Amino acid sequence: MNITQILFWFLTVLAIGSSLMVITSRNPVYSVLSLIVTFFALSGHYILLNAQFLAIVNLIVYAGAIMVLFLFVIMLMNLNAETEPQKNKWLRFAGIIAGGCFLLVMVAALRDADSRAATAMTTYGETGLIQHLGKVLFNEYVVPFEISSVLFLSAMVGAVVLGKKE
Amino acid sequence: MSSIPLTHILFVSTALFFIGMYGLFTRRNMITMLMSVELILNSVNINFVAFNKYLYPDKLDGIFFSLFIITIAAAEAAVAIAIIINLYRSHHSIDVEDATEMKY
Questions:
Q1: Closest Cβ opposite residue A87 in set B3, B16, B26
Q2: Closest Cα partner for A160 from B79, B40, B102, B12?
């Protein structure tokens, strides 16, 4: 068991445990903090998968920007465990049954999947660095890049229009 | 170098997906539902990056898909939080069961 596998299992346990904390904790502030821990673990997974730039972007955008926005909104609305609405027991039971059955089906399908690509092909580790990414982004992905800028503009206008008082 | 099979990474992403789906089904707090959606999007990101590394290690298409998913998730979170704030102003609650004007 080398260092990569140890890191992989540690990050896996961290990600799944903290994501379980996200959906089980009654206090929304704890949910947000657990979600930040999940995003850190997923960034570790990205680094193990040779996507270093994506790991940093994930940290900055998700853990840095979106989660701070969530935290501000939760504190603005003064949510805590007492105001947290809970669904009834039967719906939760049905959710466990449905999600668990589908999870079992997916895991069984993954076990029987063709494992011809079971070995990691890490020929060189510079694939996910910003130099390669920038060349491909501004050659092949220019149109989606520009469209995403238009999307951001419309999202900003939409958020301001929705959020302002009449 | 690394000896992690692809199926292990796919299992992580599957587990995250269904944890997010369970949260989306069983929580009534809108912000927690939005956080479950973010979990689902991140599990999809891991899938894209893992398939990119294991099947096409000399290409970058999976990484760009993940990058655009992160972009769209940021825009989605901003608009959704604006909607939630507006709903909180009019209903004084973010319980999804309270917003029933357009239900019937």
A1: B26
A2: B79
Residue that wins the pLDDT comparison between A64 and A89 = A64
Q: Which CATH architecture has domain B6-93?
A: Orthogonal Bundle (1.10)
Q: Chain A: residue nearest B50 by CA?
A: A49
**Is the pLDDT at A83 greater than 90, yes or no?**
no
Question: Residue A135's pLDDT is what?
Answer: 85
Q: What are phi and psi of A82, to 5 degrees?
A: -75, -35
Closest among A110, A59, A143 to B15, alpha carbons compared: A110
Contact A126, B49 (CB under 8 A): no
Quick one: pLDDT at residue B6?
Answer: 80
Domain locations along chain B: 6-93
Does the pLDDT at position A160 exceed 50? yes
Residue A129: closest CA among A118, A139, A137: A137
CB nearest to B53's CB, from A49, A74, A95: A49
Q: Is the pLDDT of residue B57 over 50?
A: yes
Tell me if residue A139 falls in helix, strand or coil: coil
- Taking CA atoms, what residue in A is nearest to B29? A85
Element housing B39 (H / E): helix B30-55
Sole residue written with tokens 């502030």 = A29
- pLDDT value of residue A104: 84
